[in-house]
Amino acid sequence: MSGFFDYWGKAGAEGEGRVHLLPFHGFDVAAVGAEILDRDTALLPRMAHLSGFRAEDLRSAIPFVLALHDLGKFAEPFQDLMPDLVRELQGPRAARVCAVHHSSLGYQLWRSWATLRPAPDEAQLLCQLHQVELAGGARGHRDLGDLMQPWMAAVLGHHGKPPEEGTLGPGILQAHPAYRSRRDATAFALAARKLLAPAPLRGSEPDFEKQLQRMRRSSWWLAGFAILCDWIGSDTDFFQPQRTEMDLAEYWQRARTSAARAVEHSGLGRSTPRAYAGVEHLFPQIAASPSPLQGAAATIEIGDGPQFYVLEDLTGSGKTEAALILAHRLLDAGRSDGIFFALPTMATANAMHRRVEPLLNKLFKGEPSYLLTHSGPRLTCKDRIALGQRSADDAAGEEEAAATASAWLADGRKKALLAELGVGTIDQALLAALQSKHAAFRLLGLHRHVLVVDEVHACDVYMLRVLCGLLRAHAGLGGSAILLSATLPLEQRRQLARAFAEGAGAHGAELPTSEEYPLLTAWSGDRVQERAVAARNGAPRTLPIVFRRSVAEVVARLTEAARAGRCACWVRNSVADAVEARDLLAAILGEDAVTLFHARFALGDRLRIEDAVLARFGTGGEAAQRCGRVVIATQVIEQSLDVDFDVLVSDLCPIDRLIQRAGRLQRHARADLDRDPPALEVLAPPWSEDPSAGWLSAPFQRTAVVYPDPAVLWRTLRELKNRQQFALPGEARALVEAVFGSDETPAALMPRSGQAVGKQLSQASVAQGAVLCLDLGYLRQGMDWSSEAHTPTRLGEPTVTVRLARAEAAAPWLDGVARHLQWPLSQLSVTRRLVARPSPDEADLVAQLERTQPFVGDDIVTVPLRLQGDGTWTGRAVAERGPPENPREVPVQILYSPVRGLSVIQGA
């Protein structure tokens, strides 16, 4: 037997005796890759299209490179993580210390093979590793090394980010060909090559640079695939530790058998799309009278290659159903295998979950998987993807320790991108386009899905730039996308279409130009179709604008409406304003008549409130339930929540948001009500052609913070005043372009507006630097690869996750639910300006509570609460105030109520 059996690859804690030799783990992962490729017949053709190689050659080549994924574990610094075990396997030797991760050690070894003058056995290895045949003729080993570089980086960097590329210091195997570990790594690679017998990779591109470009793009697919195979291949429920030597061919057959069981258990590939059978199959309730947009989605031409669509229509027009019709047609046409819905907020994701889950078995046959995913807990039971529920340690103290790996693998936020049907916040998709750990795995999942992004207009400048990066990457890997919006400026629609076209390789392609509304835009190949559609029956309406000038005036208006038996909603721009308005109205109408709905509740309380609002004010809400009720809400109510009110008041906000809010005004026809004609009521400062600098900030300070460009609100108010009403959908496009297509700004507002625009440009620049470029390949290229926590999908003030607890019981705030949901349902997100860390006075209790929590980190703050005599729960914490580069610590008092949410006051 060769010396490469003297190396451990997986091991439990010292003394457990669960040791798996390194060559066997390499073959486990290779076997998983072979099994997935055999089961999923769509993968190889897609990889062939991306890489330019023949599918039959890839079938044998990919398992071979996967067998080499842990070459770096031959390195002494990795082996020495378990010195007692190394002495047993290799005998006494001097330890060699190096802080470089084993993925980078393996990559540096391979690069030394490919670029330096190799030893004789390494020369033989290179001849066999780099069997790439280009249509343009043979190349030298250095060129072939450059060609394979992105692929080898993808496989060796299988822990979520590309390996480090710098020169490593002396004393490790990469620097000394005479080291035994280097010879044994070479011997293993040759043995794997002989056993797995990969076919030469025959490229279709005669030009070396074009083939290299294909290798770089396809390396992202291979990186995600290597992560997936390593997860499954590390599951000790199926791959039992093997500590003694055995014939590699015999072990390979065992690994194939184990891989078949492991992949079957994982839930991957148990489902295929059903054939599209028309609108009546998906939505029998609308089959007789689909909306014009839905009819267009059912008939628009589907071309070859990646497809891109933008569906623009009013709130309540059936965009979701139209998107599902179109997505099902794409599944049937073989463009994708699944669907992922990306929503702007957790509340909208929950609402979409309720709408699409019943369609799971209409869209797919077999055993499809479905996941709801956002920053809260996974609340759906159709989780059939079981990746790595138990994973062996690589070593005590190593990055992928079992507790971290098992928790990570059980995290639905990543697995949702593998499920046939996934619903989540847009953040989960945007991470695929950022320099964040495991971005390649997210891309692997997404590229097989129709990416449906709802409420696109809700993206700020930073998110829009990241979304463009995601569309570019998604198209580059062959994916299709559908974007939904009530009101999208033409320039934004062109930016998004351009990004997708560039990703698909169509630089300089035709872009949208139509200003019709409602509109379905389709891009395929290098051609744009823009189909204007009629408004849904009953949708056209003209809303008079009624201006309110003070909070007191709005309170009087809502009080009058409630006492007349109407239901009403006031959409406020800040949580603090919403809380104050709720208290004013509750004092007049009574506590039970007023509901407060915002994002600063513990998740369990927020879901309870959300469900109650949907039940009372949604399509099934009865007149008796709605009568005399008032909802005070923030922006959480304006998107994708199917609710309507007899009376609606909104704080002044940008015109696209205002149109969204108007969609909650008498949204449904209600035969049981005799309602007054709808009118949109807006709380706004007095109009002025030449406003002062404090025109907005003086009367509405918090609105000025939430929407920092006063010129946008000034132009919005100008359109409202000049029109005194607006007709929807007819004037929706003109309204949006008048506000966002213009840069007219009064002189006194220019300083604040200029600051806001400058900040937007800065955010766009930050996004540009953080977005991945597939054409660079799965390589660091000098970029900073961070964890997800430090690669934001949204810019803004730094935040923490606050976990609320009941001090007397030493238990989570919501402890009357399943144990695994208690802490997730007891948490919420706030800025560090409000809460940054626990109070040092609560250190002992916080430590006790943290021992019962699933994750604890610097961005998680536990706050014990105590019940006061007036029914208020209070706690203590520390906030950070002042400039981010030099914040000062401030003791704060936390006030919490399941009715009012969380508030913070200075002083503990």
Automatic annotation (TrEMBL):
Keywords per UniProt: Antiviral defense, ATP-binding, Helicase, Hydrolase, Metal-binding, Nuclease, Nucleotide-binding
Pfam families on file: Cas3-like_C_2 (PF22590), Cas3_HD (PF18019)
SUPFAM superfamilies per record: P-loop containing nucleoside triphosphate hydrolases
Superkingdom as given in the UniProt entry: Bacteria
Domain HD Cas3-type: 15-232
InterPro entries, sorted: Cas3-like_dom (IPR054712), CRISPR-assoc_Cas3_HD (IPR006483), CRISPR-assoc_Cas3_HD_sf (IPR038257), DEAD_box_RNA_helicases (IPR050547), Helicase_ATP-bd (IPR014001), Helicase_Cas3_CRISPR-ass_core (IPR006474), P-loop_NTPase (IPR027417)
Record-linked CDD domains: Cas3''_I
Family indicated by similarity: In the N-terminal section; belongs to the CRISPR-associated nuclease Cas3-HD family. In the central section; belongs to the CRISPR-associated helicase Cas3 family.
Protein name: CRISPR-associated helicase/endonuclease Cas3
Organism: Anaeromyxobacter paludicola
